[in-house]
Here is the input.
Amino acid sequence: MKKLLSQIFPLSFLVLAVSFIGTANAEQMDQKSATVRLEVAKFARITNLDDFVLSRQSTDGDAASIYDGSEEFRLESNTAVSVSLSGEMLSNGTSRIDTNYALDDDGLSFDTEPGVHNEEHKVSAEATLGQISDQEAGSYSAQITITVAAL
Here is the structure.
């Protein structure tokens, strides 16, 4: 065992010495630099927007009865965006009911600040009946569209 160690020790010392000498004599021949780039596209998404029902705020079905309701949704974007809302009047196919819409209780559009955006917003609707005979009893619906465009 002692003999084996006495042979390994000088050999390992020699390998170590040669590796240091080889490194010390290495000469750098060339060097270049490069820039890595990435372009992130503008993107926005609306999530958690579901159908919602308007509830009566006064007598159900009477002239000038008011119905309202709202729905929360999340807007996430990586750039400044313009958000706009459009919507139809409530209809059952033959009768229509005057319907007003708003985003965040303040009009039909808004712009976000420059940069990223990740916040909850609200879409709301209010419908006012005409005279009792102006609209049939029954179920009414309307389609709304929220559009997001980069600024």
Notes: Helices lie at 2-24. Residues 35 and 90 are 57 Å apart (CA to CA). Residues 44-150 form a domain with the Immunoglobulin-like fold (CATH 2.60.40). The chain is about 15% helix and 40% strand.
